[in-house]
């Protein structure tokens, strides 16, 4: 029998679906061959069972059997046909699910075929009309995760009730009554939410960065404050040490002078006593000699002069006071020194406290919208005095209508601030701080209860307006007053800038609104109180 020389090409052993060498090839009734897995998956996705090559329809799903002859030929072909060497796919890249041997890099994944393809094996999806309808996406691993575990169908819908991806069959069963939307629609919604989330996260990051900056600034400011406190404290203790050393020298000098006086008095008395002893000794000798004479005339003539006692002091009442007699005097000296030290310490403490407060000076100007109609403000907003006549101006709810008062344009709702006001040549004035919600008509008493923290001066009387008032001893007429506020600590302090001493502090205050500096020059009293209140620049070198 003649042997036919048949030439087999690579195309004879390739499945028309996967375009790779047959793997468990089966033959349809129309005579076309396919990989068992390829034709099975193809029919699973079709309503009617037909041949992918000739489109022949089958009434029922054919019972496929492996073509043993073609399977053996395909196996031989794999061993005899030399596959071209191609670059391997990097570990992070998606591999083609169809390639045998060295897998090529996938360029697309099909969500219908549930397969990733390299450029070569993707060709049927670009050529065959029914495959062109398949949904291609960028290459991705684990395509099985895109299939419903329960129904083995593509997850292409989203359940808004349970917030999970579902297939079409899920919407007819467990999620039947739930609202579902296509994945793309929910993707767009979630993408918009993600954009907002990203914006919120970035804002939170910036807020925390700002908080870190604030904390670092606080630490830096604390370091500066600590250095300044150490420097001021050093000056205070140096001055106190000098004062103590001076007191010690004065104390020592007082003791030595007292001792010197006592010693001199004792030495003088001893000299007198020694002289009297010497005189008495001489007389004793004469008495002895006279007692042994037998000359009656001489004895009688001499006896009269020897019988009279020599002139001496009455020593019973004479005494030398010991050193212990001066203890009370020395104690008074010590008490005076202690009083001096306390006054010096208070002065140094007040000065250090004032310097610390001055570090928070702020530049404030008066707000004409709040000024009483009698008040006249300077162009720079730093001075105010009573003009004596009400100006005609439009009504303004911010304006004081009862008392001649004015607020500054600036207000403060946190931290610390300090300002100084010159009150020189005035017989009456009012100044301090007040909340924005104060009664502009002035019907309420101006105390902390009505959100005012003010110092009031009138013809030598100085008081802090509280309930009850806090009165202060008369002092030299004030020239300039410093006002310090620590908003967070609830503190308002007043200082006499001429004497550089602390006047009064209101502690435990409750601040819930912005605070503004408050000034009232009071009425001019026929020219006696016409001098202005002046917001003065802070001289921190005082």
- The CATH homologous superfamily of the domain at 375-536: SPRY domain
Basic shape = elongated
Helix content: 25-40%
Strand content: 15-25%
| CATH architecture descriptor of the domain at 375-536 | Sandwich
User: Low-confidence parts, pLDDT < 50 over ≥5 residues?
Assistant: 1-6, 82-91
Give the overall pLDDT as a whole number: 82
Q: Major β-sheet, in short? A: 7 strands, antiparallel
Any idea of the CATH class of the domain at 375-536?
Mainly Beta
Specify the structural class.
alpha+beta
Q: Helix tally?
A: 7
**Number of beta strands:** 23
Strand order of the largest sheet: 11-12-23-14-19-20-21
| Rg for CA atoms | 56 Å
Note the gap between the termini: 129 Å
Order of helices and strands: EEHEEHEEHHEEEEHHHEEEEEEEEEEEEE
CATH names the topology of the domain at 375-536 as: Jelly Rolls
Note down, in words, how this protein is organized.
This protein is α+β, with helices and mostly antiparallel strands and 542 residues long. Among the domains are: 9-82, 2-Layer Sandwich (Herpes Virus-1), CATH 3.30.40.10; 209-327, no CATH class; 375-536, SPRY domain (Jelly Rolls). Helix content is 34%, strand content 17%. The chain has seven helices and 23 strands. It has helices at 36-44, 68-80, 123-127, 129-132, 183-291, 296-307, 327-358, and strands spanning 25-27, 33-35, 49-50, 57-58, 108-110, 115-117, 136-137, 157-159, 164-166, 180-182, 375-377, 383-386, 406-407, 416-422, 428-435, 452-458, 461-464, 470-472, 480-486, 491-496, 501-506, 515-520, 533-536. It has a seven-stranded antiparallel β-sheet with strand order 11-12-23-14-19-20-21, covered by helices on one side. Helix 5 (183-291) runs antiparallel to helix 6 (296-307) and helix 5 runs antiparallel to helix 7 (327-358). The longest helix is centred in the middle third of the chain and has 109 residues, at 183-291. The protein is elongated. The protein starts with 24 loop residues before the first strand and ends in a 6-residue tail after the last strand. Mean pLDDT is 82; it is low at 1-6 and 82-91.
């Amino acid at each position: 029998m003649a042997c036919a020389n048949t030439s087999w090409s690579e195309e004879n052993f390739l499945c028309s679906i996967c375009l790779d060498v047959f793997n468990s090839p089966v033959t349809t009734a129309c005579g076309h061959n396919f990989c068992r897995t390829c034709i099975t998956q193809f029919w699973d996705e079709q309503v009617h069972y037909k041949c992918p090559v000739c489109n022949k329809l089958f009434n029922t799903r054919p019972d496929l059997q492996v073509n043993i002859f073609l399977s053996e030929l395909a196996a031989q072909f794999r061993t005899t046909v030399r596959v071209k060497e191609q670059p391997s796919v990097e570990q992070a890249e998606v591999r083609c699910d169809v390639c045998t041997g060295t897998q090529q890099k996938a360029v697309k994944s099909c969500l219908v075929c549930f397969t990733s393809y390299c450029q070569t094996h993707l060709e049927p999806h670009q050529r065959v009309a029914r495959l062109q309808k398949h949904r291609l996406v960028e290459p991705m691993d684990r395509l099985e995760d895109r299939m419903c575990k329960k129904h083995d169908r593509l997850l292409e819908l989203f359940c808004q009730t349970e917030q999970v991806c579902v297939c079409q069959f899920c919407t007819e069963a467990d999620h039947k009554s739930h609202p579902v939307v296509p994945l793309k629609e929910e993707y767009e919604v979630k993408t918009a939410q993600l954009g907002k989330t990203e914006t919120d996260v970035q804002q939170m990051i910036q807020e925390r960065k700002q908080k870190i900056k604030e904390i670092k600034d606080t630490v830096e400011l604390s370091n500066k404050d600590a250095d300044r406190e150490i420097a001021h404290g050093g000056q205070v203790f140096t001055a106190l040490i000098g004062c103590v050393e001076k007191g010690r020298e004065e104390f020592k000098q007082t003791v030595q002078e007292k001792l010197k006086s006592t010693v001199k008095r004792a030495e003088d008395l001893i000299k007198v006593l020694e002289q009297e002893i010497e005189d008495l000794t001489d007389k004793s000798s004469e008495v002895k000699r006279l007692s042994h004479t037998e000359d009656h005339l001489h004895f009688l003539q001499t006896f009269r002069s020897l019988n009279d006692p020599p002139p001496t002091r009455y020593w019973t009442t004479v005494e030398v006071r010991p050193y212990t007699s001066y203890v009370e005097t020395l104690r008074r000296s010590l008490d005076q020194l202690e009083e001096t030290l306390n006054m010096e310490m208070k002065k140094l403490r007040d000065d250090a406290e004032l310097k610390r407060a001055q570090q928070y000076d702020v530049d404030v100007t008066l707000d004409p919208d709040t000024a009483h109609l009698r008040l006249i403000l300077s162009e720079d907003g730093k001075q105010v005095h009573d003009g004596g006549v009400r100006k005609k101006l439009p009504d303004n709810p911010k304006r004081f209508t009862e008392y001649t008062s004015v607020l500054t344009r600036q207000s403060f709702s946190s931290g610390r601030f300090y300002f100084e006001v010159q009150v020189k040549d005035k017989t009456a004035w009012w100044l301090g701080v007040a909340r924005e919600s104060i009664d502009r008509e002035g019907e309420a008493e101006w105390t902390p209860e009505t959100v005012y923290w003010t110092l009031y001066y009138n013809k030598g009387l100085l008081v802090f307006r509280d309930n009850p008032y806090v009165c202060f001893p008369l002092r030299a007429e004030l020239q300039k007053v410093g006002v310090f506020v620590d908003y967070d600590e609830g503190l308002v302090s007043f200082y006499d800038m001429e004497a550089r001493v602390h006047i009064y502090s209101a502690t435990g205050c409750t601040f819930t609104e912005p605070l503004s500096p408050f000034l009232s020059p009071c009425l001019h009293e026929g020219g006696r109180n016409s001098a202005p209140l002046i917001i003065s620049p802070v001289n921190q070198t005082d």
